[in-house]
Amino acid sequence: MERARIRVFDTTLRDGEQSPGCSMNVREKLRMAHQLDRLGVDVIEAGFPIASDGDFEAVQAVSASIQRPVIAGLARACTPDIERAWQALKSASHPRIHVFLATSDIHLTYKLRISRQQCLEQARDAVRLAKTFCQDVEFSPEDATRTDTDFLCRLLEAVVEAGATTLNIPDTVGYAMPAEFGQLIETIQRRVRGIERVTISAHCHDDLGLAVANSLAAIAAGARQVECAINGIGERAGNASLEEIVMAMRVRPDLHPYDTGVLSDQLYPTSKLLSEITGVSVQPNKAIIGRNAFAHEAGIHQDGMLKNPLTYEIMTPQSVGVPDSTLVLGKHSGRHALALRCEQLGYQFERRELDEIYRRFVILADKIKTVEDRHLLELIREAREQAQRIPPGHVGELPLAIAASAGAGQTRPSGAYFSKPLAAPLPADSKTCELPLSKVEQHSEQEDYLWGV
Ligand SMILES: [Zn+2]
After folding, report:
1. Which of 86, 92, 186, 276 lies in the 20 to 30 Å Cα band around 135?
2. Using DSSP, how many helices (H) and how many strands (E) does the chain show?
3. Rounded to the nearest whole angstrom, what is the distance from the C-alpha of residue 233 to the centroid of ligand 1?
4. How far is the CA of 47 from the centre of ligand 1 (A)?
5. Residues 272, 399 within the same domain
6. Which of 263, 278, 293 is the last residue of a domain?
């Protein structure tokens, strides 16, 4: 199947910047714009020039210093906005004026207080004016997904005729469902005269957590530009997340046979830079670039990962620029992961020795959640010291120093952690160390597999 090229329109610096806590000054926007250029986006929406002097300067600075991508500036459908946008954009190698006007009855009645006919004329006149400055004009009917479809198609036809080169369909309030949004794009494509001359674009918000799904549905229906933001920042619940859209296409080309110009190994560095600039970090479980997106703690997952990463990773961390997968050592970890970390720290253990380290490790992990290398080193040291004092085969109490660092002096029966995962029941009185180590060995492989399922 032929692979269509999707243009990635990044609005981190405009819609994204409008989200609480994410505003950026001129220098910060410029730094971010250079990284977006490295990332390979096709369009950088650098700001809303009439909104403030700072925004104007930022669009001007980005226009003057970033050559490859198209630089867009936002404008309402009125003369002062469009003129101001052009003033900020005119030094760009590839400038684009992005004009928007709300089209839904709810916005026309309560916000703009104009009729549908007035709306259509205003949109058409605004595009005509923008076109006198710039060949590349994008038009967005704000709140398109709550706009009467017949009216929307008529208005889009008028702006195409006026010279718009991109029609962006925003789900401004994050209200659409994927199938419905895809259908809307199809309808526009079928009914708007002259549509074959322009690019259809999608701009989805995440109020129902569907921004990426809606964007992909729009692309499947014929949209060839997608508007999105790094880390999914944007008004309210945010915009469609750039990294998720790009990787969805890359991981599932069988269903989404599209290419973008994005260099995926720049995704993580770009996300990190944005967090550093804004001071707003993403949640740990954020897809693609969250701290835990490539972290594995559950024992069976860690074991599988160490044998072959394909068992639990649908993409490599390197493909999105994350330095490496993280095996987090916690109470769900198995022996295999523990042994690997010990090896990385310079220790290799016999099976029996490892069992003892592992026993202590589980007790500790239960109390402190994540076992850091320093804890592990301490644990190894104490286990070795004790092994020298106690005859082989005897499993003693948890050493005092470790127990103290775990915040409690209590110990657990040596066999306690086997009671859940082991298929064979343990003797009820396995409180101290009656469990022969040979029995532990016999079941340990199985234990590694069951633990954390
Ligand atoms: Zn938006």
Report:
1. 186
2. 16, 12
3. 10
4. 12
5. no
6. 278
Pair 256, 117 in one domain: yes
pLDDT confidence of residue 429: 35
What does the pLDDT look like over 55-81, one tens digit per residue?
999 999 999 999 999 999 999 999 999
Judge contact between 274 and 36, C-beta under 8 A: no
Distance 190 CA to ligand 1 centre (A): 25
Distance 160 CA to ligand 1 centre (A): 21
Rounded distance from Cα 242 to ligand 1 centre (Å): 13
The answer to the question of residue 218 being in a domain is: yes
* Six token digits for residue 445: 């492989």
pLDDT at 1: 58
Q: How many CB atoms lie within 10 A of CB 38?
A: 14
The string of pLDDT tens digits covering residues 115-141 is 999 999 999 999 999 999 999 999 999
- Identify whether 296 is part of a domain: no
Ligand 1 centroid vs 326 CA: distance in angstroms?
34
One domain for residues 414 and 268: no
- Kindly state the tokens that stand for 296: 């594995």
Segment among 149-158, 166-175, 228-237, 408-417 with least mean pLDDT: 408-417
Per-residue model confidence (pLDDT) at position 294: 86
Ligand 1 centre distance from Cα of residue 144 (Å): 11
What per-residue confidence (pLDDT) applies to 325? 64
67 lies in the same domain as 165: yes
Q: How far apart are CA 101 and CA 72, in angstroms?
A: 16
How much distance in Å is there from the Cα of 106 to the middle of ligand 1?
Answer: 17
Q: Answer yes or no: is 289 within a domain.
A: no
Q: For the chain, state the CA radius of gyration.
A: 29
Domain final position from 230, 254, 278: 278
Q: How far is the CA of 204 from the centre of ligand 1 (A)?
A: 7
> What CATH number does the domain containing 220 carry?
3.20.20.70
Do 240 and 350 fall into the same domain?
no
Q: Determine the pLDDT at residue 74.
A: 98
* CA of 210 relative to ligand 1 center, distance in Å: 14
pLDDT above 50 for 303 = yes
Distance, CA 159 to ligand 1 centroid (Å)?
Answer: 20
Ligand 1 midpoint to CA 174 (Å):
9
φ, ψ dihedrals at 72, nearest 5°: -110, 150
Q: Provide the domain limits for residue 134.
A: 4-278
Domain count, the chain: 2
Tokens describing residue 126: 């605004």
Q: Is residue 287 part of a domain?
A: no
Task: Return all residues near 279 (Cβ < 8 A) that are at least 6 apart.
Answer: 21
The answer to whether the pTM exceeds 0.90 is no
CA of 16 to the centre of ligand 1 (A): 8
